[in-house]
Amino acid sequence: MNADNAILWPMGALVALTFAVLLLVPIRRFRAAFARQVTAADFRYGESANVPGDVAIPNRNYMNLLESPVLFYVACLTVYVTHRVDTVFVALAWIYVAARAAHSVVHLTYNNVMHRLAFFGAGLLVLIAMWARFFLIL
C-alpha cells in the first residue's frame, strides 16, 4: 500500500460521519410527522418555525459537515496529489475528524453551545494548522 493512501482513511471516516448524520434527517422528520408535530408544508422552503429543534438539529449538523470540512477534503487531496503525505499530516487529519465527530455528538445529543464551540474551534485550529503546514513544506 502506498504511504500516501494513509490520508484517505480520515477522509473516509468524515464521509461516513456525514452520511450517518444525513440518515438522521429523514428519521427525525418522519418520526415528527407521524407524531403530528410537523407537516410536509413545514419543509416547503427548508424548515419553518414550526419544526421542533430536535427535528431541525440533524439537518443543521449535516450542513455543518458540508461547510468547513470542504477545506479539509481539499487539504487532504492536495497533500495526496503532491505526495507530501506524512505522519504529522495524517495525525492532524485524524484529530480534525475527531473534533468534528465530537462536535456532532454534542450537537445531536445534549447540544451545549459552549461545548460545541470548543470542538468546532479545535477542529478549525487543526484545519488551519494543516494548511499552514502544507504551505510551509512546499
Describe the structure.
26% of the residues are buried. The mean pLDDT is 96. Helix 1 runs antiparallel to helix 2 (53-64) and helix 4 packs antiparallel against helix 5. The protein is elongated, with a radius of gyration of 18 Å. It has helices at residues 8-34, 53-64, 69-81, 87-108, 113-136. By secondary structure, it is mainly α. It starts with 7 loop residues before the first helix and ends with a helix. Helices cover 71% and strands 0% of the residues. The protein contains five helices and no strands.
Biggest sheet overview: none
Kindly report the average pLDDT value.
Answer: 96
The number of helices is 5
| Apparent shape | elongated
- Which regions are unreliable across 5 or more consecutive residues at pLDDT < 50? none
Evaluate the radius of gyration. 18 Å
- Class inferred from helices and paired strands: mainly alpha
Order of helices and strands: HHHHH
Helix percent reads: over 70%
What's the count of strands?
0
What is the CA–CA distance across the termini?
24 Å
Estimated share of beta-strand residues: under 5%
Write the layout of secondary structure elements.
Elements: H1 8-34, H2 53-64, H3 69-81, H4 87-108, H5 113-136
Helix pairs in contact: 1-2, 1-4, 3-5, 4-5
